[in-house]
Write a sequence for this structure.
């Protein structure tokens, strides 16, 4: 196939740079390949460009330079290709990004939108989609909250609704932007285990952004260290040494 | 080797789906009821009376024809009334803001000193909103005589109802977290209101104020009809003596003025709120 990427890659970034309108450069010439089935983490301090990198991968933040290629689809700058790519790419957000007054089920059903036309989506989605949504809620352990409005759920529960929504897309790739940053350690471990189990069982590639090294070491099989918009480490957790960490966690923007 | 997930379809799914569907049906019934209410209103006001609409359309075109071309010959005489209308809208809005600021604190459930004050303030807001400015204008013309003064007072008093209500609602919707923070540093209740609630609701208040100014500018023209001065009086006079070409010229002047006021209020709002 013409658009197929080499090997196991599912998405590839080539020399991607992102500069915001007010002049801040968030990413500088990033080249990166995400592979099928891997559970990877972007590690970095806040402001290092983690969120921008994740958002570039599904074009929520289109790169100012460079290209993002999806395996079997092509360059994401094409709107049709982008829609197909987003359909198979689930995203989980730090602040959940749920509609608070809607029930968990309604929120999860949003994950099925790309499978239907605009007019069809004005009516309740078919039974099959509703069952997929319920199945996803069951997998995250929230089946008994299906009809509960999201605003009464706890932070950890909301995040699980967010995971169920991403899962309802039947994704091949899962992007998670700081999925545990606003959770207590117990809930954080629960969410990480859940993500890991689901991605392994369904063969979903995952890219998470985290700022806690312990979580990255414990759960992930690939670490991408990001500092000042550049990749300074890319490899298995075992290869990550203290000088890499020092570089990741040294904030040169603060002048004492 | 991880085991692939097997979708389970237990009976609990059916129960949830039934309930979900029932909710959707309820919503559908509500929407249909609303739609039938709207259709009934259309019938009542004869919007669906084809015959009337059919005869009305040519008559409208005839009238429009008589309005063309606009006659600007009296333009110099309109300058003073335009200025009056502008002054009325500004003074009226200022009166409304002045009265609304104390009233909204009484009428917001989270800042009111006492439930009785709350209900009285709400009642005052409802009453001023319930009396149309046109009626208020007629009453005030009878009380203080013709001119700009009754018009301005009518605008100010009627505006209190809407401005005060919106201010109070903004206060009620303000975030409680900074209020808690202000309390925790030992601020008194008035200090909490001024330093924690007002900064949050200020942009919303500015929005409402400038929107109301714009509204009052338009409303002050209608008030001209009951003898409250301004450009509205000119329009009504021209209509009475069937000078439709002057009416269209006046309407164009008004259109330009409304556009200017709209632009100016947008500019000021941005400038204020930043």
């Amino acid at each position: 196939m013409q658009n197929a990427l080499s090997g196991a890659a599912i998405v590839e970034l080539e020399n991607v740079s992102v500069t915001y309108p007010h002049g801040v450069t968030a990413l500088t010439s990033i080249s990166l390949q995400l592979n099928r089935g891997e559970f990877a983490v972007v590690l970095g301090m806040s402001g290092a460009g983690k969120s921008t990198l994740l958002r570039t991968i599904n074009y929520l933040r289109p790169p100012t330079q460079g290209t993002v290629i999806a395996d079997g689809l092509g360059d994401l700058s094409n709107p049709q290709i982008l829609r197909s790519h987003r359909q198979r790419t689930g995203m989980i957000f730090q602040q959940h990004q749920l509609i608070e007054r809607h029930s968990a089920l309604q929120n999860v059903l949003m994950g099925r939108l790309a499978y239907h036309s605009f007019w069809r989506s004005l009516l309740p989605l078919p039974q099959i989609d509703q069952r997929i949504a319920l199945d996803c809620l069951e997998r995250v352990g929230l089946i008994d909250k299906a009809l509960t409005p999201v605003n009464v759920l706890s932070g950890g529960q909301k995040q699980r609704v967010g995971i169920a929504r991403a899962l309802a897309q039947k994704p091949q790739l899962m992007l998670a932007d700081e999925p545990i940053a606003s959770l207590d350690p117990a809930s954080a471990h629960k969410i990480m285990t859940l993500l890991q189990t689901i991605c392994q069982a369904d063969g979903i590639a995952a890219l998470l952004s985290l700022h806690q090294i312990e979580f990255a070491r414990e759960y992930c099989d690939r670490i991408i260290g990001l500092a000042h918009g550049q990749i300074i480490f890319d490899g298995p957790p075992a290869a990550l040494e203290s000088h890499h960490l020092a570089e990741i966690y040294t904030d040169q923007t603060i002048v004492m | 080797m991880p085991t692939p997930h097997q979708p389970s379809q237990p009976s609990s799914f059916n129960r949830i789906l039934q309930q979900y569907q029932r909710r959707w049906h309820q919503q559908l019934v509500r929407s249909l009821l609303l739609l039938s209410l709207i259709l009934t209103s259309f019938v009542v006001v004869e919007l669906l009376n084809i015959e009337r609409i059919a005869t009305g359309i040519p008559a409208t075109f005839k009238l429009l024809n008589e309005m063309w071309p606009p006659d600007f010959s009296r333009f110099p005489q309109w300058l003073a009334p335009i200025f009056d209308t502008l002054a009325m809208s500004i003074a009226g809005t200022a009166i409304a803001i002045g009265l609304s600021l104390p009233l909204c604190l009484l009428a917001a459930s989270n800042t009111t000193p006492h439930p009785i004050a709350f209900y009285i303030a709400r009642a005052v807001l409802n009453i001023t909103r319930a009396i149309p400015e046109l009626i208020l204008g007629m009453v005030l013309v009878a009380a203080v005589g013709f001119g700009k003064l009754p018009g301005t007072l009518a605008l100010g008093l009627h505006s209190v109802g809407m401005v005060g209500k919106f201010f109070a609602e903004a206060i009620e919707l303000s975030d409680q977290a900074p209020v808690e923070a202000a309390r925790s540093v030992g601020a008194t209740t008035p200090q909490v209101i001024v330093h924690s609630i007002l900064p949050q609701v200020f942009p919303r208040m500015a929005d409402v104020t400038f929107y109301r100014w714009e509204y009052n500018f338009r409303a002050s023209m209608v008030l001209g009809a009951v003898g409250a001065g301004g450009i509205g009086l000119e329009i009504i006079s021209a209509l009475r003596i069937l000078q439709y070409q002057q009416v269209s010229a006046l309407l164009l002047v008004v259109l330009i003025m409304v556009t200017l006021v709209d632009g100016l209020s947008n500019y000021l709002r941005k400038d204020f709120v930043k």
About this structure: The CA atoms of residues 5 and 63 of chain B lie 74 Å apart.
